[in-house]
Automatic annotation (TrEMBL):
Protein name: Phytanoyl-CoA dioxygenase family protein
A GO term for molecular function: 2-oxoglutarate-dependent dioxygenase activity
Alphabetized Pfam families for the sequence: PhyH
Family annotation (InterPro entries): Phytyl_CoA_dOase-like
Gene3D superfamilies on file: q2cbj1_9rhob like domain
Length: 260
C-alpha cells in the first residue's frame, strides 16, 4: 500500500487526477446507491422546476433536509471509510477536511450541453484564478453509481494556466463557447465502482449521457481558506460522531469552524 500510495500521489501531483477501476464492490455501490437515490428523489420533488429547466447537479447530500438520521450516518461512514481515507491520505497534506458533497446527473433538457470550467472561476476573477491554482488544493473524489460516459479533463492544468485555445473556450472569448471540444482534453469513461480523483481547479467537464448519477465528495487542505464553504448542517451531529468509525475528516472541519 505504501508504494501504491506513492504512485497515486505522484499521478495526482503530475497530472491532477487518477482513476482506480473497480475500487468498490457491487455490495458497497448498491448500499450507497440506495441512500443517494432517497436523497435524489426527494430533492427532485422539492426542486421540480429547477430540475426540469436547467439542473445538472445538487449538493449538501449529507444535510438533514432530505435524509433521515440513520441514512446520514451510513453516508458519513462511507465518506470516511478506510477505502476512502487511504486515498485521501495519499493525495493530501496533513489534516484534510470535509467540504461538501455533490450529486451529478443528466439535465432533463436534451439541448443542454456540458461545459469546460475550473471550479475556482466561480469565485475569482482571471488574475486571482492564476494565483489560486498555485496554492492550496480542493480535491474531488467521484464515485459513479451507474456506468456513465464519465469526465473529460485537461491533464496538468491543476498547476498550469490555460493555453490560448483553453482560455477562449472556457471563458467563451473570441466567439468560442465552453461546450466546444478541446484538443488537450482527455476523456475518461467511468463505470459503477470506479473512483476518480481530480483537482477541483484543473480544467474539466462532465460528459452527459447514459445513466449518469455520480457522487462527489470534496475535501480540502486545512491550511487553505475554505472553511466558509462548509455548511454546518452537512457535518455530523455530535451524537453521530461516536457512530462514525473514523470521524477525523469531519472533526477537522468542525475544529476549523470553531476557530473561525
Amino acid at each position: 500500500m505504501v508504494e501504491n500510495r506513492c504512485q497515486l500521489n505522484s499521478s495526482y501531483h503530475e497530472q491532477g487526477y487518477f482513476v482506480i477501476r473497480d475500487y468498490f464492490n457491487a455490495a458497497e455501490i448498491s448500499a450507497l446507491r440506495k441512500v443517494i437515490l432517497k436523497f435524489h428523489e426527494a430533492w427532485k420533488k422539492d426542486n421540480e422546476q429547477f430540475y426540469q429547466e436547467e439542473a445538472f447537479n445538487s449538493s449538501l447530500i449529507t444535510g438533514s433536509q432530505y435524509l433521515a438520521y440513520d441514512d446520514r450516518v451510513k453516508l458519513f461512514n462511507f465518506i470516511s471509510s478506510k477505502k476512502i481515507m487511504n486515498i485521501v491520505d495519499s493525495v493530501m497534506a496533513a489534516n484534510p477536511a470535509f467540504m461538501n458533497t455533490q450529486l451529478f446527473f443528466n439535465p432533463v433538457n436534451p439541448l443542454q450541453k456540458d461545459f469546460w470550467h475550473r471550479d475556482c472561476q466561480y469565485d475569482y476573477d482571471v488574475e486571482d484564478q492564476k494565483q489560486v491554482i498555485q496554492e492550496t488544493q480542493v480535491v474531488h473524489f467521484r464515485i459513479p453509481l451507474f456506468d456513465e460516459l464519465g469526465m473529460e479533463l485537461v491533464p496538468g492544468t491543476h498547476k498550469r494556466w490555460d493555453n490560448e485555445e483553453e482560455f477562449d473556450v472556457r471563458q467563451e472569448e473570441k466567439g468560442r463557447v465552453s461546450s466546444e471540444g478541446l484538443s488537450t482534453g482527455k476523456k475518461i469513461k467511468l463505470a459503477a465502482g470506479d473512483l476518480l480523483v481530480f483537482s477541483a481547479d484543473m480544467i474539466h467537464r462532465g460528459i452527459y449521457g447514459l445513466d449518469r448519477l455520480a457522487l462527489d465528495m470534496l475535501v480540502f487542505d486545512s491550511t487553505g481558506d475554505y472553511v466558509d464553504y462548509v455548511d454546518d448542517d452537512c457535518l455530523p451531529e455530535t451524537s453521530m460522531l461516536e457512530k462514525i468509525e473514523d470521524p477525523r475528516l469531519f472533526m477537522n472541519s468542525i475544529d476549523l469552524k470553531a476557530e473561525g
